[in-house]
Design goal:
single chain, 168 residues, 6-stranded antiparallel β-sheet, signal, Lipoprotein
């Protein structure tokens, strides 16, 4: 996935995430970097496997400077199937407004259960590898760090092992 594919639809999606832009600021929208260079690749291994359309990845960026009209913004990244895994790339320099000093802050990984993505967890973009155990449930999904904890969690739903690994 090249930088142009990464940017396709970024501006409309950047502010479409509910709760991902704070402090009403009129018509301000972060400007996407036309040529991002700081790209980071990630791999998701989900067992049992889920198709890419049942996995949503949100990237939240925070403003590093107080003079920025908003404090955070976000965008969706579409994972793609690669063998048994899902892969996606994140532009750490997606927004380049010098007033704001945008920094990628969190990656939210969400698994669809029913018609929503309530089963979710977050990791920092600097993550090397993390494992989460997720129980999909459309009313009350959850992800925990230990398998023993998710197995004791008394909510119906299938359990998934999710491993996120940062690449180059």
């Amino acid at each position: 996935m090249g930088p142009r594919a990464l940017l396709a639809g970024v501006l409309p999606a950047a502010l479409a995430l509910g709760g991902c832009v704070t402090a009403p600021a009129g018509d301000y929208q972060p400007s996407p970097n036309p040529a991002p260079r700081d790209l980071r690749a990630y791999q998701l291994r989900i067992d049992p496997p889920l198709p890419p359309e049942q996995v949503r990845v949100e990237v939240v960026y925070r403003a590093g400077k107080p003079e920025c009209p908003v404090t955070q913004a976000g965008t969706l990244v579409t994972p793609e199937r690669q063998g048994q895994s899902l892969v996606f790339r994140v532009a750490l320099d997606l927004f380049n407004d010098p007033r704001c000093g945008w920094q990628a802050n969190q990656l939210f990984i969400a698994l669809r259960a029913g018609d929503n993505y309530l089963t979710r967890f977050s990791v920092p973009p600097s993550v090397d590898q993390q494992v989460r155990w997720c129980r999909l449930n459309p009313q009350h999904g959850t992800c925990l760090a230990r398998e023993s904890d998710i197995l004791r969690y008394r909510v119906p739903g299938e359990v998934y092992r999710v491993v996120i690994t940062r690449g180059q």
